[in-house]
Amino acid sequence: MAVTEQQARRALAGVMDPELQRSIVDLGMVRDVKVSDGRVTVTLALTTMGCPLKDQLQKDTRAALLKVPGVQSVDVRMEEMTAEEKARLYGDQKQEQGGLAEKFNHVEHVVAVMSGKGGVGKSLVAALLATGLRRKGLRVGVLDADITGPSIPKMFFPNGAQPGSSPIAILPAETSTGIKVMSINLLLEREDQAVIWRGPLISGAIRQFWTDVLWGNLDYLVVDLPPGTSDASLTVLQSLPMSGVLLVSSPQGLAGMVVRKAAQMVRQVGVPLLGLVENMSYFIAPDTGKQYDIFGPSHPEIMAAQLQVPFLGRLPIDPELTSLCDYGQIESYKGDAFQPIVERLSQMTPEAKPPAMPAPAQGR
Amino acid sequence: MAVTEQQARRALAGVMDPELQRSIVDLGMVRDVKVSDGRVTVTLALTTMGCPLKDQLQKDTRAALLKVPGVQSVDVRMEEMTAEEKARLYGDQKQEQGGLAEKFNHVEHVVAVMSGKGGVGKSLVAALLATGLRRKGLRVGVLDADITGPSIPKMFFPNGAQPGSSPIAILPAETSTGIKVMSINLLLEREDQAVIWRGPLISGAIRQFWTDVLWGNLDYLVVDLPPGTSDASLTVLQSLPMSGVLLVSSPQGLAGMVVRKAAQMVRQVGVPLLGLVENMSYFIAPDTGKQYDIFGPSHPEIMAAQLQVPFLGRLPIDPELTSLCDYGQIESYKGDAFQPIVERLSQMTPEAKPPAMPAPAQGR
């Protein structure tokens, strides 16, 4: 049975670009296909010959074609795209302008974790939420929007991490369980380097974490917000296609006041409030098992009722968890206090709104 | 013995404007003095006839003149200043432009409390520092530079507070022990109202808290910085005449990393680092007296050595203190863990640098 070019092209349609997660046929990367006596010669066009995923692409292409009945041998050649081919791939935008990654991202739910006040455990809740969603088998990313005090990488990467390189985008770092992470600290030479930027630069960096990072297909993107209701929070709530905001509080009266400010801001920009989690609710002495309200008595249900948001649960102060956070091993946390919160949240998150940004992504 | 006009004018030179704390003669407020047979008639010029301190000024003037031997009676008349008199008082600046208060402020030491990270207890340390300095009999103010998450007023005022009104400036609120406080929350209708401002507005508000608030003569102005190394921190460190910065950390590894970022920023803008205080170091169970390292083991001395700053002390987590903070009664805290820190700090604070702001204050 003679192999036809049509059969070969059908097989190629099933080969995905490992980075963009789209068919190489759809991406216009198949420049030429020749079939002769069961021998297939394919020429693929790459955005750059320095593409780090070149070998995998070659292997996948060969494997797909060898599955076609009658194919005896496969020759995969690679060339660089012409300027016109690149322009077709990238659309109207110029490569230098950024925003290319956004075209290839598809994120179902964007959930921000916010408290207004610092140090109540936003980053911890964001990390536990991402870990819990990942344990359910979902595809999860974490965008660390705290540019001046980023906590996320330290919780997930015991030995630090670098983002991947790609000609068209920044690739997020991946944790041991496969959570994709982007944080300014992944881009700094030293983790304790100060980022002394005024508001517009902070906002610009956060926008780039959305438009220039190749998140790919995600079920959830968890956004860890910094304290406050200024530039970073405003930019996330106004520029990203938010599904909703998860509020984090602590038993301190001060925290309650500031969380109410945060809730008011979220309402003003028209984003749904998904619920309230109280962190640092109590401390259980590991030796005696006795419970201490070290930050005062806790009434998160009343606060949630005042804010008219669902109360999702309480988290104790757990020295083991603090230690796991400090050593980049939050994903191995055994405590189950957070999983019910993950379950409830994953049932209630609306799909992400279309992005409110200028020049919205095409092809999503 | 006949009273002379010269004697009367000398007595008037000792009368201070209660608001500006300058002699009414120096301020050009004495428009006319007539002496006849032991009867003195004085005409004072006020910036506005609505001045809330008019009565006190009248009383003080009368009392000063009655002390002059031979004075039988005093008649104090009050008129409003002419435009020229006001211009002379205010200097070149127009009243509407603000910045008038700064001319009358004299602050010896400006100390900012910073950590980079939120929730490690900056505001608590700032409030304890102010309280401790005040207990030593010093004149103390607290400038709350956390515009989106202000904690200071709640710690000092059990029933809220309003700033005073004055024709030329904002008057800080005063605590029960006489600490002067300015915070955005004193200017809001409701304490949990959100302030959703981008960086330039945040910076503008902080600058106004320096230029438009009548702090008067202070030995110490303690500035409570928000988390982060962005607009608020930059503005304080660059625009205020800083004596130095006190760093606050917690045992969490995350906090350590972010505090190192903050220290780097302070060094970059050329402000002295006064030392490091560790908060939340441990928790002592009130029933058993046992100590728990609930946020992990603590090595602040090592951290201080790495940062090359003096280590000033540790503060435990004290539920009583949390409760006092939540009820506006921090000034009645009995614990003495903080007083040694106050002592050391008050020995090492350099005098405030001349301000680096455009149009520096005259007459300081």
SSE order of chain A, one letter for each helix or strand: HEEHEHHEHEHEEEEHEHEHEEEHEHH
CATH class membership of the largest domain in chain A: Alpha Beta
- Give the DSSP E fraction of chain A (strand runs of 2 or more residues): 15-25%
Return the CATH topology of the largest domain in chain A: Rossmann fold
- CATH superfamily grouping of the largest domain in chain A: P-loop containing nucleotide triphosphate hydrolases
CATH architecture of the largest domain in chain A: 3-Layer(aba) Sandwich
Radius of gyration of chain A: 24 Å
Please state the average pLDDT score of chain A.
89
Q: Give the class of chain A from helix and strand content and strand pairing.
A: alpha/beta
Query: How many structural domains are formed by the residues of chain A?
Result: 2
Query: What multimeric state do the chains show?
Result: homodimer
**Strand element count of chain A:** 15
Helix content percent band of chain A: 25-40%
Instruction: Tell me the distance between the termini of chain A.
Output: 40 Å
Taking the sheet with the most strands of chain A, its summary is:
8 strands, mixed
Give an overview of the whole structure.
The structure is a homodimer of 364-residue chains. With 364 residues, the first copy, chain A, is α/β, with parallel strands linked by helices. The first copy, chain A, folds into 2 domains: 5-92, Fe-S cluster assembly (FSCA) (GMP Synthetase, Chain A, domain 3, 2-Layer Sandwich), CATH 3.30.300.130; 100-348, P-loop containing nucleotide triphosphate hydrolases (Rossmann fold). Chain A is built from 12 helices and 15 strands. Chain A has helices at 5-13, 54-66, 83-90, 100-104, 122-135, 152-156, 199-211, 231-239, 253-268, 300-307, 319-326, 339-348; strands spanning 30-36, 39-46, 73-80, 106-114, 140-144, 164-165, 170-171, 173-174, 180-182, 217-224, 244-249, 273-278, 283-284, 291-292, 311-314. Chain A has an 8-stranded mixed beta sheet, with helices on both faces. In chain A, strands 1-2-3 form a 3-stranded mixed beta sheet, covered by helices on one side. The first copy, chain A, has a two-stranded antiparallel ribbon with strand order 6-7. In chain A, strand 1 and strand 2 form a beta hairpin. In chain A, helix 7 packs parallel to helix 8 (231-239). The longest helix of chain A has 16 residues, at 253-268. Chain A is elongated. Mean pLDDT of chain A is 89; it is low at 356-364.
